Amino acid sequence: MDNFAFDKKNYIMLAIGMLVVIIGFILMAGAGSNESAFNPDIFSATRIKVAPLVSLAGFVFIVFAILHRPSQREADEKNTETDE
């Protein structure tokens, strides 16, 4: 009856992946330059190198969380708990 595509572990991994992606986007955010003033901080290593890699790692982790399938042992343990 409980034949869901994801189990609790998948949802936790998805939430962690989304949190990492959000952290990456927050690292990319900041004040930009405009016509009257140039802000050299838009070319900082955090905004150009670190933040995109953090976001990419989050997206990869989300894909892993979606494709992760519980092992047969975990499935057997879940079935024995529901049978009792």
Q: Ranges with pLDDT <50 over ≥5 residues?
A: none
Q: N- to C-terminal separation?
A: 14 Å
Instruction: State the shape.
Output: rod-shaped
H/E topology pattern: HHH
Category from helices, strands and their pairing:
mainly alpha
Largest sheet properties: none
State the domain count: 1
Helical amount? 55-70%
Number of strands: 0
Structure report:
The protein has 84 residues and is mainly α. It has one domain. The chain is 67% helix and 0% strand. The chain has helices spanning 8-28, 45-67, 72-83. Helix 1 packs antiparallel against helix 2. The longest helix has 23 residues, at 45-67. It is rod-shaped, with a radius of gyration of 20 Å. The mean pLDDT is 86.
Provide a compact summary of the structure.
With 84 residues, the chain is mainly α.
Task: Please name the defining characteristics of this protein.
rod-shaped, mainly alpha, 3 helices
SSE blueprint and pairings:
Elements: H1 8-28, H2 45-67, H3 72-83
